[in-house]
Specification:
Largest sheet: 9 strands, antiparallel
InterPro entries: Chordin, Chordin-like_regulators, CHRD, VWF_dom
Family: Belongs to the chordin family.
Radius of gyration: 30 Å
Keywords: Developmental protein, Glycoprotein, Repeat, Secreted
Number of helices: 14
GO molecular function: BMP binding
Main location: secreted
Length: about 900
């Protein structure tokens, strides 16, 4: 099988980018295929592909995905008739079609040029042009910049309409459900509302072949909202999802008559939607249904809407806006199978209509016309979601930014009748509290626009405000769901506001705590000694049934000078307010994160730390390079009954019911069976036969790697019974160490994202990179107390034999067989490792130290957008940095490395001078 290094033609080391979470590792040869346990397929780039799978090879940073190279896992037969896979890659650029247009464009992520779309403006395009205005950026200082938002906002939204199954002689269901999905990385969050059916018991996702790809057992409850997560989507399923080939079904029982289903589709109106309606029929077992997505114009009282109907034929329809059976507006149109979505604008809604809209009292009705008229209808309410509407208030985001070390935290819940419940907590104010308000962005400098005053509900003794706002207008609901409102705390010395925060929706991540429990506030005033910082934050912390700690942290107010690289620690303290760093077991690094959000699960928790959480003597602390001893901190109280520490050895990343139910794991085609136990895809565990191995499940394939123990610098070590590696005898070490500085240096060390562990200064280890396991051909070192991890390729000894061998499949370097070990003179290629500045070998070429070149990749040719250089024997490569573009229509001209705005590209081509320069 081919590998990354086979395709590139050399083993290279990638220069770490400034924003990478962990140092990039050398790309190593993967000539030994991943063990497949009898599965037929291909190993390529550390991943396993099934027979007939096709893909574009990803060479990693800085090369990226080769869109003009297509690889396929071709089935082959051995002499014994056994089927195996062979990777075949080819350049597909010559297969690009001849285009008839004059000005074809190369879109980002494509290999072939395409003709620019020139469609006649339709109602749908007019709608999209109107709702595109909702993405306008405001000048309020509380808005996060694109750099601060980070990867947590990188998401794709989908929607599905679920109606009764009609391809059966059985009576179909009367139920209609609407599902909204958000894909971030490999996790799909879903929020489902349903009508005219009992609470479902099971939700099933079906792939393109109609087989169950994922099942979710619906927990019991009274709400008509279902919130769930599908974690660790496999790449083929993600491609099917993007291609709108995934279906979803929902059933209340075994009987099919209680089942509804629909196709998951992308929809451009999702980002602008602030009101919605689920349309059902009054007739039993009709199988009819649909949804309406609605939004208000930015400045005018116009209501835009899109209908998504389950009607395949050419149908004349009549759309009515109704209040208590009185028809307010009526529109007639045709809906066809080629254009099933119907878009329209209801202009100039009067004050009464807007009031009824805000209270959820307006109804939208869709009726077909003809011999057999049918009608579906539903009330219009605010958009339902599993996301948490919340805000972090900081002094750094105040209208006049400051550094007070205070914090404000707010959580909101919007009801269908327009009532907004709120809970606010404030701490660390530098002067007397004056006012708490919900506001718009300032119309002019320091000219606040107050919508609602929460001051009467604020309790100065507790620092909290709790109540409801029942007079929310339709415009305010729209702005709230578009993240356009702010909450402000005014004090005696800061009349315009000491703390301020943007009210934003926090994406649902599978945990219920953010939707029901107030977060822990994090402030500089809570650090010992207090820190005057412009940053603040809040965190949701919970302990599940497996005694794993789930956390989600939101930070606001960090300026660029504070460095956006943030680390969060969890501290268990002997007494509240004391930071006793001499107890290493009570300090755990949660995560290193970039931007404003971090979340994760801490699984191997000590009994002492769990006891501190239960007693309320634990703290979460966020530190930065400017304040390595803590920038903001908060006290954590999580009652739990985990007296014996973390329960269960196996670590599943899926939902709890997947970890619990062995029968469900058996049905999952991605499950691994190992040591008489089923393991979920993506899980990692320690096998029973040897504690010094770490195993993981990757698509029915079990991969076990030996544990590499770090080198200990302490004078005395102990060997725990349930661990593979020895550890320092802390009691002995703490007695020997006289100065607290040395203890701090040992405790800080380096955090490595791969194994998610702390490493002491000066220690070296083979990096663990999920899901590939331990990388034997790389060694990482913790550099002093600076916290920097340096990883480099293992330098193999010079061999003089003609036929070196690798003694073990997991070994990095080859050795000479005993009979071939000689002291012959070094060949020319081996002289490259002599003393002095080392040379570099890339492909078949040698380069002097400090040489620069563009890499040449087979099937692609010279990659002019990537520069490589030789740094004392190590090849480093980096892609040319492209500017951040704010336009939506991107294109890439031939001979350039970076995309550009389509409008600017057209101007350059139309300019005679620039066209001449471009051709030369």
């Amino acid at each position: 099988n081919l590998s990354l290094s086979d395709l590139i033609g050399a083993s290279i080391s990638i220069a770490p980018a400034s924003r990478l979470k962990s140092p990039a590792l050398p790309i190593q040869s993967e000539r030994e295929p991943l063990p497949s346990k009898g599965l037929s397929g291909c190993s390529f780039g550390g991943r396993f592909y099934s027979l007939e799978d096709t893909w574009h090879p990803d060479l990693g940073e800085p090369f990226g995905v080769m869109h003009c190279v297509q690889c396929q896992c071709e089935p082959q037969k051995s002499r014994r008739g056994k089927v195996f896979g062979k990777v075949n890659c080819k350049n597909i650029k010559q297969d690009c079609p001849d285009l008839g247009c004059e000005d074809p464009v190369l879109l980002p992520g494509h290999c072939c040029k395409t003709c620019p779309e020139r469609k006649k403006p339709s109602l749908w395009s007019q709608f999209c042009e109107k709702v595109d205005d909702l993405h306008k950026s405001y000048n309020d200082r509380s808005y996060l910049s694109s750099e601060e938002v980070g990867s947590e906002e990188s998401r794709t939204d989908f929607v599905a309409v679920l109606t009764g199954v009609t391809d059966s002689w059985l009576p179909t269901s009367s139920g209609v459900a609407r599902a909204r999905f958000s894909l971030t990385k490999t996790s799909l969050a879903f929020a489902i509302t349903y009508k005219r059916m009992d609470r479902p018991s099971k939700i099933t996702f079906l792939d393109s072949a109609g087989t169950a790809a994922f099942e979710y057992r619906v927990p019991k409850g009274q709400s008509h909202m279902i919130c769930g997560m599908w974690k660790n989507l496999a790449k083929p399923l993600m491609r099917q999802l993007q291609a709108e080939q995934i279906h979803i079904s929902m059933s209340t029982s075994v009987s099919r008559r209680e089942e509804v289903e629909g196709k998951i589709i992308k929809h451009r109106a999702l980002f602008a939607e602030t009101f919605s309606s689920t349309l059902t029929s009054e007739n039993e077992h009709s199988g009819m249904g649909g949804i309406a997505m609605l939004t208000l114009s930015d400045t005018e009282n116009n209501l835009h809407f899109i209908l998504v109907l389950q009607e395949p034929h050419v149908v004349p329809i009549r759309v009515q806006l109704v209040y208590r059976q009185h028809i307010l507006r009526e529109i007639r149109a045709n809906v066809t199978s080629h254009d099933p979505d119907f878009a329209e604008v209801l202009t100039d809604l009067n004050s009464r209509e807007l009031f009824w809209l805000s209270r959820g009292q307006l109804e939208i009705a869709v009726a077909t016309e003809g011999r057999d008229p049918r009608q579906i209808s539903g009330f219009i309410t605010s958009r339902k979601s599993c996301d948490t509407i919340q805000s972090v208030m900081s002094s750094g985001d105040a209208l006049t930014p400051g550094k007070t070390g205070g914090v404000g935290s707010a959580v909101f819940h919007l009801h269908d009748n327009g009532t907004l419940e709120y809970q606010v907590q404030v701490a660390g104010l530098t002067s007397d509290f004056v006012g708490l308000t919900i506001e718009l962005k300032p119309r002019r400098r320091n000219k606040r626009s107050v919508l609602y005053d929460l001051t009467p509900e604020y309790n100065k003794a507790t620092g909290r405000a709790q109540g409801s706002w029942s007079r929310l207008e339709a415009r305010h609901i729209h702005m709230l769901l578009q993240n356009e409102l702010f909450i402000n705390v005014a004090t005696a010395h800061n009349q315009d506001g000491e703390l301020r925060g943007q009210i934003k929706a926090l994406l649902y991540n599978g945990l219920e705590a953010p939707r029901h429990v107030l977060p822990v506030t994090l402030a500089g005033q809570f650090v010992t000694p207090p820190v005057r910082t412009g940053a603040s934050g809040h965190a949701w912390v919970s302990v599940d049934r497996q005694c794993h700690l789930n956390y989600q942290i939101i930070v606001a107010g960090l300026s660029k000078s504070d460095d956006i690289t943030v680390n969060a620690h969890l501290h268990g303290l002997a007494e509240i307010g004391e930071l006793d760093d001499s107890s290493a077991t009570h300090k755990r690094l949660l995560t290193g994160f970039y931007g404003s959000q971090a979340q994760g699960v801490l699984k191997d928790i000590s009994v002492e730390l769990l006891r501190h959480l239960d007693q309320g003597t634990a703290f979460i602390q966020v530190s930065t390079k400017m304040n390595p001893r803590g920038e903001i901190r908060g006290q954590v109280h999580v009652p739990n009954s985990c007296e014996f520490g973390t329960r269960g050895e196996e670590e599943e990343d899926g939902d709890d019911f997947l970890a619990k139910d062995a029968e469900e794991l058996k049905k999952d085609p991605q499950t691994c069976f190992f040591e008489n136990q089923h393991h979920a895809h993506g899980s990692r565990w320690t096998p029973n036969y040897d504690r010094c191995f770490s195993c993981s499940c990757q698509k029915r394939t079990v991969i076990c790697d030996p544990v590499i123990c770090p080198v200990l610098t302490c004078s005395r070590t102990v060997q725990p019974q349930d661990k593979c590696c020895p550890v320092c005898d802390e009691r002995k070490e703490l007695k020997d160490v006289k100065t607290p500085e040395k203890v701090e240096e040992h405790l800080e060390g380096c955090y490595f994202e791969g194994d998610q562990k702390m490493h002491a200064p000066g220690t070296t280890w083979h990096p663990f990179v999920p899901p590939f396991g331990y990388i034997k051909c790389a060694v990482c070192t913790c550099k002093g107390s600076s916290g920097e991890v340096h990883c480099e390729k293992v330098t193999c000894p010079v061999l003089t034999c003609a036929h070196p061998v690798r003694r073990n499949p997991s070994d990095c370097c080859k050795e000479c067989p005993e009979e071939e070990k000689t002291s012959a003179a070094l060949e020319h290629s081996d002289m490259m490792q002599a003393d002095g500045p080392r040379h570099c070998k890339f492909g078949k070429n040698f380069y002097q130290n400090s040489d620069n070149w563009h890499p040449w990749v087979p099937l692609v040719g010279e990659m002019k957008c990537i520069n490589c250089w030789c740094d004392h024997g190590v090849t480093k490569c980096q892609r040319k940095q492209c500017p951040v573009l704010t336009c939506t229509n991107l294109t890439r001209r031939e001979g350039t490395c970076c995309p550009e705005c389509a409008e600017e590209a057209d101007l350059m081509l139309k300019s005679p001078d620039k066209r001449k320069t471009w051709r030369h």
